[in-house]
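Our consortium's second objective concerns turning raw sequence data into structural hypotheses that experimental partners can test. To show how far this objective has progressed, the report includes one record in full. It was chosen at random from the queue rather than selected for favorable results. The single chain below, 296 residues long, was entered without modification.
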Amino acid sequence: MAIRIDTDQCMGCGVCVQHCPKGILAIGDTVNARGQRHVVLTDPDACIECGRCAAMCTAAALSLPAGDAAHQLIDAVKIPPHTGCPLGHLTRALARAFTNLGVEDRVVLFKMRAADLNMHVNSHDYEDDSYFADALAYKREHPEDLVIAVCSSSKEEPTHVNEARYRTLAGEKITVVNTLNWFEADRDLTRVARGGSRILEELASAGDASYLARGSIRTVADMNRFTGYIEQALRHQMAGDAFGIVELVYPCFYRVAGRPQTLMGADAIERIYRWFDECVRPEYPDAVLRDSSPAE
């Protein structure tokens, strides 16, 4: 037995290659239905089925032969279309958190349809940003459900809109996932030209939230830690505590690269990730900024 690869689902980002402890994954020479060079298993007999590659796959193209409840929760058909998009990591982390807690049937997601974060759970997709107000109203009417509002802080205006929203959450009991990817680089990828947000620090000082955490996902350890953040935020909601926010910080490859009109290759993505690791991540380290109670 060895890890299963859906070659047509693969985006060719190469993330899984970096995390195989046996070094038996590689980007091959043939292309798939997407026109991308896809990952191949060079030595199936050497695979130890550790699942590290599947955990880090942004396209749900890799899966364990024994099955994985979290993998089955992901709607692979609607996986984010950009090569290596970290929204695929967020989808994986959410799916793992839901299955670890056994709350798949209690979760209700509110989000923009364009968020490209798709799972086989109760999900309300919107063409406009009224999803946030509706999420709050739904939670008030259905306190037994676990309501998550997924917000995209991807440009200057939506980032400021989200900051204003979060300042009004006192008394609410939902969980917010804030995807902070409003970061723009200079032409040579040597510094951050503009972008970012410090709303979590502000909210931590205000003291109205039960839980605030921030993280990035670049390694399996990052994935495990971020999944734990989501689980803890949901535990607070299950306990009836005040609102919580979990923020995922990551680069938008296509914005940083000047919005190319074709799928990106692994080399280009890795260059942007190096910029992110050097220029952004030190300013936004993984951390729990507020945890008002154990919520175990």
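The partners drew two points from this record. The mean pLDDT is 92. The chain has ten helices and 13 strands. Both points have been shared with the crystallography group to help prioritize constructs.
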